[in-house]
Amino acid sequence: MSPPPRPRLYGGVAALCLAVLGALLPAGSAHAASRTVQGGRLDWGIKASFQSYVTGPIAKGSYSLTGGAATVGSGAFRFHSATGSYDGDTGAFSAAFSGGVHFLGHRTDAGSYQLDLTISRPTVRITGSSGTLYVDVTSKAKDTGTVTTSSQVPFASLSLGGIDMRGGGTAVVLNDLPATLTSQGAKSFAGYYTAGTALDPVSLSADVQAAKASPTPTATPTATKSKSSAKKDTSGDGIEDGAVDWGVRRTFREYVVGDIAKGEWTLSAGAQDGGALFRFPAGDGTYRGGDLEASFEGAVRFTGAHGLDLRLSAVRTTVENDKGTLYADVVSADFTGKKVPLVTFTAKDLKAKDGLVQVTEAPATLTAKGAKAFAGMYRAGTEMDPVSLAVALTDDAELPALPDLGSTPTPSGTPDDPDPAASAEPVAADSSGSSGDGFPVLPIGLAAGALLLAAAVFAVIRRRRARPAEATATPSEED
């Protein structure tokens, strides 16, 4: 009786080896089904030279942030609240982010702008070894003035540079991916650049739902109630909870972390970072007939070179006769004061709806005492960041969600200190937890044991089935 065909022999060995490896692999490594992306950030400057052109002496323009977008670092914009999916088996990844940037330049005598471009809602999609950045674009053609609005334009191609996107952890982190303008992107960019132009690199981090587990809250709080103070249960004053959101001033934040001050800000006492704003939670106070008086918890401290040290705490707001004022206790090198009125804002027709009283992005103006708090950096009357305010009058009223920046990215394992299982962070193949042949790297002990066992089984079967006259090559690992 002739021996079985070689393919069946090696197929049996492969199946047995896979069974052995499957038994030794952790259960979660056997299969990582598509999982939900639940929060995160994307940092991208679009194109540095374009920013310089818009704000420079030729276009004499500016940009503004929309939808909770923020600035970060030197010239980058931060988009937030990632939603999407990630398949650790194939590396397929899709995440959409919130926020936008509106550029204006070349103002005409009529008050309009020849350059008018909004880029928003960036989405990154990666399949295999290729990636694409999609955006919503509203642009005015520089020659004809025709305004075009397009949704999810494939704006830039992303170079992954050999990154292995497979993994089984709870975070996807990609840093400085080279981005190249596509032909469709060039068209939607109002013709300012041609296809193939290099754009600013893209960096992102996204929290991923743990495998075979229900979604867990991200590090950034969302629209949950803050019951951190016992007084919420006993005050009886009509306010169950509340929060005030304020970014102080965008250019001030940029100055703090920029090349001059080279500083930072730190949050304490429950204050939360929303990227473009700080949230001061746990509101308590009174609301009657359109008038409001409330205090909030949390503090923010700005520090940096040249004596920069400014702390704002004990934030309070009042609304009376449609006018709002935001106060804070101030401590700095040059000024200290309690309940300092920092900014005023408009709060017309402040009424409750579904148990919630809200003021959304009300324009704010610096007061004379506020100018002293900033050591004269800004004059009284300067436009500051808008104020958003919400107080819940009933226990079931939910506060607006804070922009979700996801958890703070952490470096993945390195060859010197490998820990690839701790994160799904895509990195180069030599340190990502994958071998050059595409097989998962096991811990050394397990890998050695599995390979020895598989080799022993293979040798036994081969001795039983081998024929002296046969000289065909043995199959490679890929077979």
List key phrases describing it.
13-stranded antiparallel β-sheet; about 15% helix; 7 helices; alpha+beta; 26 strands; about 475 residues
Strand-helix topology:
Elements: H1 6-24, H2 27-30, E1 35-44, H3 48-55, E2 62-66, E3 70-72, E4 76-86, E5 93-98, E6 100-107, E7 113-127, E8 130-140, E9 147-159, E10 163-164, E11 171-181, H4 183-188, E12 198-208, E13 241-246, H5 250-257, E14 264-268, E15 272-273, E16 278-280, E17 284-288, E18 291-295, E19 299-303, E20 309-320, E21 323-332, E22 336-346, E23 352-353, E24 356-366, H6 368-373, E25 383-392, E26 427-428, H7 444-465
Antiparallel strand pairs: 1-4, 1-12, 2-6, 3-4, 4-5, 5-7, 6-7, 7-8, 8-9, 9-11, 10-26, 11-12, 13-16, 13-25, 14-19, 15-16, 17-18, 18-20, 19-20, 20-21, 21-22, 22-24, 23-24, 24-25
Helix pairs in contact: 1-7
